[in-house]
């Protein structure tokens, strides 16, 4: 197998389309089709289920994709390691939505100004999804929330997943956000709403809200409903409409000064780290970690 073949295979697997993969790779469509067929013939298995609209991975294709991610990531790491001490190449960064909106714009701007030759890719998601992507070699590093409640510097990365290294960045103070019309609440026992607007499962902040609310009444533990939302703007819209509550970092809520008709209740502090695979090191990733830590 050649790295170019694996790159083409991964693009088709990700895009689920020969046409979109060819556009992404800046190759002609016939070349992508030929290289995929050659790879299947060399391996003696079908890697895709083909229909009129999508290219879906077979079980064998899923297994190969995991190896392709590892081999391509290792090849990129090796390439960067022998090209001098200056950051170069591609850096794939994952981040929670809250950090992307509030904490990362300035460090990213400084990093780009210092190292314009580094190609930066950014993906957002829940802590669980980002950690999985780092371990699967689909991301190089990610800014995530740690579920532990102990001291920041002593946090165990195994609580997120084995095989991670983490660098502490900052601490967020989570607040439950309720409609302004809600009766005054001081703790979970005072919350009358039974619907939480939140990101999908795997979001550390969502889990913090569920755990905190579960300390209230039996009715809350039994009847809490979750409405999954794509953004904090959508969550705050639900709160403003009086249909749900939400949980947000205090620093992010400060950016939404238009959300005036709400009340907040402190929930807990959550530490944020940038994580990477244990032993992973490139000049670009190391420079970005320093920018976040020291900037």
Automatic annotation (TrEMBL):
MF terms in GO: DNA-binding transcription factor activity; transcription cis-regulatory region binding
Residues forming coiled coils: none
Domain HTH lysR-type: from-to ranges: 1-58
Name recorded for this polypeptide: Transcriptional regulator, LysR family
Pfam families, sorted: HTH_1 (PF00126), LysR_substrate (PF03466)
Family membership: Belongs to the LysR transcriptional regulatory family.
Keywords: DNA-binding, Transcription, Transcription regulation
Gene3D superfamilies xref list: 3.40.190.290, Winged helix-like DNA-binding domain superfamily/Winged helix DNA-binding domain
Organism: Cupriavidus taiwanensis (strain DSM 17343 / BCRC 17206 / CCUG 44338 / CIP 107171 / LMG 19424 / R1)
